[in-house]
Design a protein that fits this description.
By secondary structure, the protein is of the alpha/beta class. It is built from 14 helices and nine strands. It is about 45% helix and about 10% strand. The strands form two sheets. It has a six-stranded parallel beta sheet with strand order 2-3-4-5-6-7. The structure holds S-adenosyl-L-homocysteine.
Amino acid sequence: MEKRVAELADRLVAEHCLEKEEYAFLIDHRSEALASRLAEAAVKVRREIYGNAVFTRGLIEIGNICKNDCIYCGIRRSNGNCDRYRLTPEQILSCADEGYELGFRTFVMQGGEDAYFTDERLSGIVSEIKRRHPDCAVTLSMGERSRESYQTLFDAGADRYLLRHETADPVHYHRLHPPEMSWENRMRCLRDLQEIGYQVGCGFMVGSPYQTSRELAEDLAFIESFRPDMCGIGPFVPHHDTPFSDQPAGTLELTCFLLSVIRLIHPAVLLPATTALGTIHPRGRELGILAGANVVMPNLSPTAVRNKYELYDNKICTGEESAQCRGCLAQRMRSIGYELAVDRGDIRRS
Ligand code: SAH
């Protein structure tokens, strides 16, 4: 390994931080040898905190109706070919009941930004899940809302909120989103969520259009300072009905490299091996765990709507029942020496 690269890798492992330019340098000069060095160190620190456990979250995709028009996303409002749906509160609650029986202790409700899901409706669903399953955590991933709304949902019992920052660079943000969306508001949401007391997840797509090592270095520096409890990163995968349909997908190699770097920056962070990673490579999620991830999010949505929550092309796990989806992931984790944990899987704060 080149001397400067080796020196930066050692410092990242020892001190959990680098300068922005140094992150960019590492990304630009990465090699198989560097990736193995970082993955080994990442797995070691994760093992010291979490042992062999991989945490699991049951993902309920509650609707694909969305007022936003994110250029990369298959459920953007301009996509006239998207077959829209929304689950009823009863359907959502029965997904959670089924998930509980299967061993899930965290439920993630994710969906498009849909005015139907008012604070009142969402709060009712959140508090009913918590009433039925008090030993579970509820995570929301419903996009940008007002601070008051986040507070109301927190008061109703929501424990965690996932809102990927998408990119820490405002210029890059504006190239991925329509003019009416703003990086400033995304950041405002993340700060509000943290201040209210949620466990907060940020994150970004790897290989999104116009992204270079400079933007990625901004993302890493942002994660270093924001200190999220969770961080969702997965490859960008083009969707055929979006303006980015011809753009190349992000790679397994760079995603795994960044998973290791993020684990080293923030050893206790909850880091999923995402469905998008499983989509671009048959063993993508296993390889993500071996690079430093420690969360998987199998699908609990009713099979009838699964193929409709199509953020990107060729999304996996749209055919199976929830039990099959969990069983398949448990088997995949066992094949690499890890076990799915049956508990809420909160972040360990040291
Ligand atoms: N409406 C919610 C949930 C969004 S979907 C919100 O705004 O947070 C969850 C994540 O899927 C997004 O944050 C985005 O990073 C990712 N995503 C969307 N389109 C994608 C694509 N084409 N490839 C990979 N990931 C994508």
